Structures are given as C-alpha cells and as structure tokens.
Amino acid sequence: MTIDVTQDAIDEPSLVKIGAGSFATVYVVRGGPIAYKQVAHVSDAQAQILRHEYDILQEIYLKCNTDSFFAIPRAFAYNDPDQNSGGFVPSLPSLSSSARRHLAHPIVTPNIMTPFTRATYAMDRVHALPYDAGMIISKKFLPESLRKTTVSLCRLYFGKNYTNAPPPRFFNTSNFPLDEERYVNLFESFPELLDPVNVVASGMGEMLSRLHFKACVDARDVEFVLGGDGGGGFTYFVIDYNQVCSCRVCIS
C-alpha cells in the first residue's frame, strides 16, 4: 500500500507563538509539550532577567511542586546564543541513553534550541483549554463580534469583579480573566472536570504559602491560570516568575 504524504503535511510551521508580552514571547515547536520563552529584545539586561527567572523556577519546582494543587512548570534548559552570556545551561545532569528512556519528561538538547536567536528557556507547556470550554467562555463573556473566537487560557482573578465592570477596549483570548462569578459559571458546565471555587481559592493560598515558606521567595506578579491537559481535561498552573525575588527573611 502506498501512502501519499503531501508537501504541506511535511512543511508544518516549526515555531508557533502561543503567548506574548512586553518582556518575552512564548512559542512551541511543532506542537510539542515544551514551551520556549524568548526575550522580546536583544539585551544583556533582559537576558539576565530571563536567566534569573529560569534559576528561580528550577528552585521553586524542586521545593514546592510535590503534591500542590497548582502545578509549577518544570524548567528544562536555558540558552543564550551569545556565549558570553552563558550559552546552553541544562537543568538536569547528563544521563545515559538508557536512563533517559525512563524519564517522565522530555529532554532538551542544544540543537532543539537553535531556532531561537535570543535568550530563551524551555519549560513545561501549559496547554490550551479544551475546545468546548474555550467556546463556552467566548459565547458567555466576549462581545458578539468575538464569539466565534476560542479562549485558549484563563487567568484566575478571584479578588476582582469583572462582571459589573465596564467592558474593556481590548480582549486577549490567550489571557482571559476569570473572576469568581465567571469561574462558577464555567464550573456549572464542567462540574466533573473542574474543582469548586473554594477548592481553587484554597489552592492559591497553599501555593503562596509554599512559595514564601518553602522556596523563600515572594510571589510578586505570579499568575494563577486555568489551562487544558492536551485533551478534554483541565490543569491549574502558576506561571510568570520574572519578578519573583528571594525573600530577605524566610521562616522555616
């Protein structure tokens, strides 16, 4: 039997942008399970900030991710094409090929980082929301002109109230805010897949406590997000550590 593979099927985009901010842009390579965070501009200062975030993330993951409600992305490797700024720095020690086959996470090598021309680090990808959940959020909370757009990721802001606030001028479907009322509304559509709002709020407090007392860092500007698991389920993550700093006083 002959299988006809078209050229279009082979030449899929190698880099796909899944998020962007003023400091950095996040990509995936060929839809894989790793996210790559690259600084927005060529700058020694930005490279140093990203390297600090990478180092902090490694430490936080080791100290806080054991059985927490909110997951912490694993940092896999950091790379700066400018060798004077550090070059390639893996998170894990060298392992034999037989040992690597038994790891429960992907291996990041220098070659896989070559598409990135500025300082970048690799970490666990937070998958987009299940398609049906993203469409429900769009239909319920976005203006009519955007209701055919799927929301891919949500930030959890239980201390705010967006329901009665004036509608914003711009909507970001990759970073859509869910306050308590919106989350409860979504929970009613997925009661068997989502956790109740009080459980999620408790998980936020738990993680903030772990960050302070176990990792000895503040939680400045970290974001609690609701994403997917790559299929029909949900995941709860805490992300964005570029402003996190070591605490001066840590009570153990």
* CATH C-level of the largest domain: Alpha Beta
Share of β-strand residues? 15-25%
Q: How can the largest sheet be summarized?
A: 6 strands, antiparallel
User: Mean pLDDT across all residues, rounded?
Assistant: 84
Number of domains: 2
Number of strands: 10
Distance between the termini: 65 Å
Q: Can you tell me the CATH topology of the largest domain?
A: Phosphorylase Kinase, domain 1
What is the number of helical segments per DSSP (H or I, 4+ residues)?
A: 6
The general outline is globular
Kindly state the percentage of residues in helix.
25-40%
Keywords:
six-stranded antiparallel sheet; Phosphorylase Kinase, domain 1; disordered N terminus; 10 strands; 252 residues
Question: Which helices and strands, and how do they pair?
Answer:
Blueprint: H1 7-10, E1 15-20, E2 24-29, E3 34-39, H2 44-64, E4 75-79, E5 88-90, H3 97-100, E6 120-124, H4 131-141, E7 154-156, E8 176-178, H5 180-187, H6 197-213, E9 223-228, E10 234-239
Parallel strand pairs: 7-8
Antiparallel strand pairs: 1-2, 2-3, 3-6, 4-5, 4-6, 7-9, 9-10
